[in-house]
Amino acid sequence: MRRYPEDAMATMTAAEKKATAKAEYNAFLAACPSQQLLGRVSGKWVTLVLSALGSGPDCDGDPRPMRYSELARVLAGVSPKMLTQTLRSLERDGLVARTAIATVPVSVTYELTALGLSLHETVRQLKRWSEAHRDDVAAHQARFDADE
Questions:
Q1: Better-predicted residue by pLDDT, 138 or 32
Q2: Contacts of 67 (CB under 8 A, 6+ apart)
Q3: Across the strands, what pairs with 108?
Q4: What CA–CA distance (Å, rounded) separates 144 from 148?
Q5: CB 73: neighbour CB atoms within 10 A?
Q6: Which of 14, 34, 12, 9 is closest to 24 using CA atoms?
Q7: I want to staple 25 with a disulfide (CB 3.0 to 4.6 A). Which of 34, 35, 36, 95 is the partner?
């Protein structure tokens, strides 16, 4: 009996269907789930936390666990509420692991997971690019605004 593609789709297991759908992700399509993820990982504080986590203010070190207070010092301007929300969302997404150590008071560290490490260098490069080209962008904005 000859099978046609629509017949093959009907006999696929759930895992096979999921694998097929995953291979077809396209963030340019509005209904694509990867578009939602792209929005989540491109937020200002998410990008800065992933960039800074374990690397300190210069972001040139190797990733290592960091305490909440150390992250708060590195990320000048982040409110405690925003840092907490960002760390929780990163933990939920599997990018950051939270470890509580039974001391008095309890010591909590955050570190990148394997999934977080796979994104770490990309966001560090984005941070470096924005630092290197901020003056260029500001000059273009000034010229554009003057022409308006």
A1: 138
A2: 107, 108, 109, 110
A3: 100
A4: 7
A5: 13
A6: 34
A7: 34
pLDDT per residue as tens digits for the range 49-85: 998 886 755 556 678 889 999 999 999 899 999 999 9
Q: What share of the chain is helix, strand, coil (3-state, %, to 5)?
A: 60, 10, 30
Asked if pLDDT for residue 1 goes beyond 50, the answer is no
Amino acid at 98: R
CB atoms within 10 A of CB 89: 17
Cα–Cα distances in angstroms (integers) from residue 94 to residues 73, 85, 147, in the given order = 24, 14, 46
State the virtual CA torsion across 7, 8, 13, 16 in degrees, nearest 10.
-150
Query: Rounded distance, CA 60 to CA 43, Å?
Result: 21
* Contact status, residue 102 vs residue 44, Cβ threshold 8 Å: no
Longest dimension (CA), the chain: 71
